[in-house]
Specification:
With 334 residues, this protein is α+β, with helices and mostly antiparallel strands. It has 2 domains: 188 residues, 2-Layer Sandwich (Fructose-1,6-Bisphosphatase, Chain A, domain 1); 130 residues, D-Maltodextrin-Binding Protein, domain 2 (3-Layer(aba) Sandwich). It has 8 helices and 15 strands. The longest helix has 23 residues. It is globular. The structure holds 2,5-anhydro-1,6-di-O-phosphono-D-glucitol and manganese (II) ion (2 copies). The site of one manganese (II) ion has 4 residues, from strand 5.
Length: 334
C-alpha cells in the first residue's frame, strides 16, 4: 500500500483544489501534532498520572478532569507561536485567547473542545478532540469574541481526533472528509480512508434515553416510533448505541450511518441542549454535511445559525439524511 502522509495529502490537495493555503496547512499540521501529544498522554493513563479530576470547574460549571486541562494546555502551547492564528477559543476557557504580542499574528481563528467525552476518561473508553477553523475578519488588529461570532457555514476547516483502539484524525477543508490513522512507531498520520460517505438510511439511533421523561413531544414521538419496530409506523427494527462521547458516536455514524441526538429538554429552559454550538455542533456538522449527512438543531440547518456567545448551547440532530430530515419535520410540524 502506498502510504500518503497528512503533509503530502494537504500539499496535493492544495495543488488540485486550491482550498488549503499554506497558512491553513500549517495550522492543520500543528493541531494534528498537538493531538498526537494528547493521544500519547491518553495512552499512558494511570502511568502518566493523567486520570481523575482536577477539582476545578470550567465556565459551564462542569468539573474539569486532569486531561481536560492538560489537553487544553497542549493545544494552546502548540498553536501560539506558529504565526498562523489570530486567536483561539476553547470549552475550557471563559474568554478567547488572543495570540501573545511576542509572536506574529496570523489570519485564522481556532476553536476547540480539547477533550470530548470526559466521563469516559477514567473508564478507558474512546474520547476525542474537536476543532473548528474560521477566518478572522479582514484588517483586525486585536481579535475580540465578536470576531468569532460567525455561522458554521463560514468554517474553512473542521476535524476531530479520536483516541480509541487506534488514534485517528478526521478532517474536512470543505472538499469531502478524509481519515488518517496515527502510525505510533513512525509518529506520523497516514491517510487510511478517502471521501467518507454517511449512508442516507439507517436503523441505528443514538440518544441518552435516561432523559426521556424530560423530552419535548417531537423527540418523544420520533423515538417512540423507532422503538415500535417492525410492527410500528416505521416498519423496521432499530438498534441503539450511546457512547457519551460525541466524537465516538459521530465516528461510528460516519462509518455505518445512524442518527445522533442531543435534544433540548424541559429540565432547564435556559439550557437549550447540552452541546456547544461553536466547538462541538458546528465542526461536527461541517464534517457530517461534507460526508453527505444532515445536521440541524431540530428546526434549521446547524451551519446557518448565527452565534451570539462563545459557549452557547444548541440542540443537535445529525447523521443519516432521511432520519435527520424526519425528526426535523416532526419538530416543524409540532
Ligand atoms: P465534554 O466531555 O466535552 O463535556 O462533552 C461531553 C458531551 C458529548 O461528547 C456527549 O455526547 C455528551 O456530553 C454526553 O452527555 P451525557 O453524559 O448527558 O449522556
Ligand atoms: Mn465535548
Ligand atoms: Mn470537552
Amino acid at each position: 500500500m502506498k502510504r500518503i502522509s497528512l503533509t503530502r495529502f494537504l500539499v496535493e490537495e492544495q495543488r488540485l483544489n486550491q482550498n488549503i493555503p499554506a497558512e491553513l496547512r500549517l495550522l492543520i499540521e500543528v493541531v494534528a501534532r498537538a493531538c498526537k501529544t494528547i493521544s500519547h498522554a491518553v495512552g499512558k493513563g494511570a502511568l502518566g498520572e493523567v486520570l481523575g479530576t482536577a477539582n476545578t470547574e470550567n465556565v459551564q460549571g462542569e468539573v474539569q478532569k486532569k486531561l481536560d486541562i492538560l489537553s487544553n494546555e497542549i493545544l494552546l502551547e502548540a498553536n501560539e507561536w506558529g504565526g498562523h492564528l489570530a486567536a483561539m477559543a476553547s470549552e475550557e476557557m471563559e474568554t478567547i485567547h488572543p495570540i501573545p504580542n511576542r509572536y506574529p499574528q496570523g489570519e485564522y481563528l481556532l476553536l476547540f473542545d480539547p477533550l470530548d467525552g470526559s466521563s469516559n476518561i477514567d473508564v478507558n473508553v474512546s474520547i476525542g478532540t474537536i476543532f473548528s477553523v474560521l477566518k478572522a475578519p479582514d484588517g483586525i488588529a486585536t481579535p475580540t469574541e465578536q470576531d468569532f461570532m460567525q455561522k458554521g457555514s463560514q468554517q474553512v476547516a473542521a476535524g476531530y481526533a479520536i483516541y480509541g483502539p487506534q488514534t485517528m484524525l478526521i478532517l474536512t477543508t470543505g472538499n469531502g472528509v478524509n481519515a488518517f490513522t496515527l502510525d505510533r512507531e513512525m509518529g506520523s498520520w497516514v491517510l487510511t480512508e478517502r471521501n467518507l460517505q454517511i449512508p442516507v438510511d439507517t436503523q441505528e439511533f443514538a440518544i441518552n434515553m435516561s432523559n426521556a421523561r424530560h423530552w419535548y413531544p417531537p423527540v418523544t414521538r420520533y423515538v417512540d416510533e423507532m422503538l415500535e419496530g417492525k410492527t410500528g409506523p416505521r416498519n423496521k427494527d432499530f438498534n441503539m448505541r450511546w457512547i457519551a462521547a460525541m466524537v465516538t458516536d459521530v465516528h461510528r455514524i460516519l462509518h455505518r450511518g445512524g442518527v445522533f441526538m442531543y435534544p433540548a429538554d424541559k429540565r432547564d429552559p435556559d439550557k437549550p441542549g447540552k452541546l456547544r454550538l461553536m466547538y462541538e455542533a458546528n465542526p461536527m456538522s461541517m464534517i457530517v454535511e461534507q460526508a453527505g449527512g444532515v445536521s440541524t438543531d431540530g428546526k434549521q440547518r446547524m451551519l446557518d445559525i448565527q452565534p451570539t456567545t462563545l459557549h452557547q448551547r444548541v440542540p443537535v440532530f445529525l447523521g443519516s439524511k432521511n432520519e435527520v430530515d424526519l425528526v426535523t419535520r416532526y419538530h416543524l410540524d409540532a
